Amino acid sequence: MITLRKANRNGDIRSTGAIPLARLVALLFLCALALPHAGNAEWARAAGGDEIIDYVDEDDVQWRAHVFTDVGSANLTVTAPGMVEYLVVGGGGAGGSVRGGGGGAGGFLTGTLTVEAGDHIVVVGAGAMGDNSDERDGQGADSVLGSITAQGGGSGGRFNNEAASTGGSGGGGGGFSNMTGAGGTTGQGRAGGTGNNGSGGGGGGAGANGSNASSTTAGGVGGNGMESAITGTSTWYAGGGGGMSENHSSSRPGGLGGGGQGARTLNSSDATSGEPNTGGGGGGQANVSGTVGGDGGSGIVIVRYVAPPSGTMFIIK
User: Fold this and answer.
1) In this structure, which of 59, 141, 204, 228 has its CB flanked by the most CB atoms within 10 Å?
2) What percent of the chain has pLDDT over 70?
3) Inside any domain, residue 156
4) Domain total for the chain?
């Protein structure tokens, strides 16, 4: 039999019961499953974030995720140095406001990082706001984790020969003289699609280019983003916005990952914005006076590590 003992708040050791040896073997087996994730390296410990999620994955490994969703600057306070896994998504670009192309998704970056103890800057990038002025619609703001920067998405092009802009993913071309979409940033996103005479191209997503406007009447579909289960739930991020259609039976959708839909017809104003905290691009807008392209969705920053072990210890008698 194995006696379980745990320290109380005063540091005194007390017995909490006993378990058979067979159960200890099973527990040790579960610990061994976690070793491939740890890679014989020390995992960091940290504080901060707008939400903290503790979960157990399919391999029975306990994770803790720190999720930053509020736009602006914050700190991740590392209390013990080591490794973390991260996801950083920039703010989405706005859709074009006049026969507009879809906005490009914010840049999508994921990987492993070694962090030292102390405060590490975190910035959640805002999505760009649609604009019906004579100037180009907006580019999304960058999201940052220390030295890691995911660029904001590019803006969709417009009918009056204003080009789409580059970004994490590029915006779709406007509906004028086959305007080309803008390029994405290598390793972060894809290019926007080309517009046609009257309809806009789809904005680029993290995982796929925005599609070209298929005809003068049908805009391009936003490029799909990328999927991540860093919070324990599989979620799509960084989808491009759909391009505006001159005359179509349904709105051209944004890509998986929060992309907004493009306006359905020349006289409609039903373009939608990218979803918050996905980095999705905004949908391209129609030619209705006073309307604007869909806003880009705000970005997100997530950090996770293998959670601290419990305070229980095993004593074999």
Assistant:
1) 204
2) 82
3) yes
4) 1
